[in-house]
Amino acid sequence: MINLLDFAPLRLADFCVEIGEKPFHAKQLLRWIHQRNEDDFANMSDLSATMRKRLAETAVIAAPPIVGEHIAQDGTRKWMLEVDAGNRIEAVFIPETSRATLCISTQAGCALECSFCVTGRQGFNRNLTTAEIVGQLWQADKLLKSAQPPSEKGGQKGFKAGAISNVVFMGMGEPLANFDNVVAALKLMLDDNAYGLSRRRVTVSTSGIVPAIDRLRDQCPVALAVSLHAPNDKLRDVLVPINRKYPLQQLLAACSRYLERAPRDFITFEYVMLKGINDSVQHARELIGLVRDVPCKLNLIPFNPFAGSGYERSPAESIRRFADALMNAGLVATTRKTRGDDIAAACGQLAGEVQDRSQRRLRKAMETQNETEYHV
Fold first, then answer.
1. What is the pTM of this model?
2. What is the per-residue burial (b if ≥16 Cβ within 10 Å, else e) of 279-304?
């Protein structure tokens, strides 16, 4: 059976034609599926009985089920969703006074091996489908709306889909390594008949896959966040290994090109603060020279520890000095408030459950064994 959550708006219109219906019915389907969270065709009362029958015979609306939930002391909620028998992913809802953000995953695991990220340590299984990506929003939206008092539903523009005003592609996986499914999900999130989110309120984070940054600019530009984390190639090669293929000058050039069509007039550079690794004032000076010509905002992220990481969080004073150096040079720099770390829902802590097909765990074990034998 075809899962209609897999279909971006234009593909859904084509599907309507394929089953003998007019393409304009796609708008009705989008509203039922994504605005009303309806998964039973029989309840779609403004569609003809014939169309509802055809839909029931050929299609389903199936989001990955939520199989676990944790709620942090600060109100952050982390959901585990099952995408198949061997893989579970995580999504995080972060409520704030002026907005409410959903952080979603795009892969079961991650192949990029960023050394400070627990997802990158656990291996990679597969890309998520469009249905599995947008299904995280569908499930969260349905759950949150069901908990809303009727008097509080609806409201200002940007909150059409319930409590969620912003979506960030910053969960498990590298979004631009799953380009086609991510773009299809983006188009659903932006469509006024679905979630109606602004391009400024949807952010894709990338470790720096340069050709895909250019493709995103051309096909579906939204807000862009780049996981920078180092001010020079030598250090970034270690922290973010994709840098060996797309070094910093190539990455920054791609960021400048992206700004030609971006909905915001700046790129967000994310920079995890690692004690004694990348947090000195000299590192800040290097960073200033690196990004000075790219309109940007620096988002400093205190490292969120996990077992076996080998890293420590930079002291608050080190982060303050680093931020001051950036701001004194005229750059915009903020320090991210850690949310949900008591339930392992903070940046870099999402793990889920992944059946590793990349053999990374085996390779790492062999490397460790070889190091031990060498030292003996």
1. 0.89
2. bbeebbebbbebbeebebebbbbbbb
